[in-house]
Specification:
- With about 90 residues, the chain is an all-alpha fold.
- It has one domain (about 15-80).
- It is built from two helices and no strands.
- Helix 1 packs across helix 2 (about 70-80).
- The chain is elongated.
Length: about 90
């Protein structure tokens, strides 16, 4: 990363274990907040279209993976079902 920086000289921060755990916690929190926002945005957009039936594609990241059950698609489907849409 240092080689690709614009500034030639910069201070490098190397965190200890406790600081690293805090960084990891806040990064994960940020990701959860972003997903929550986009799930609500997508759901609102679908409901705005006044569509009663919604099709959802299953996207798998790996061969023989069942990561769909923990994905944002499941959350969007749950919200749509609560709003009485057919999924």
């Amino acid at each position: 990363m240092k080689n690709s920086a614009i500034k030639k000289y910069m201070q490098i921060f190397i965190p200890n274990c406790t600081e690293m755990e805090s960084i990891k916690f806040f990064v994960n929190l940020y990701l959860v907040l972003c997903l929550s926002y986009f799930n609500g945005f997508i759901t609102t957009h679908i409901l705005y279209k006044m569509t009663n039936t919604v099709g959802v594609y299953r996207l798998s990241m790996k061969t023989n993976s069942d990561n769909f059950c923990h994905g944002s698609s499941q959350t969007i489907m749950k919200i749509l079902l609560e709003k009485e849409s057919v999924v």
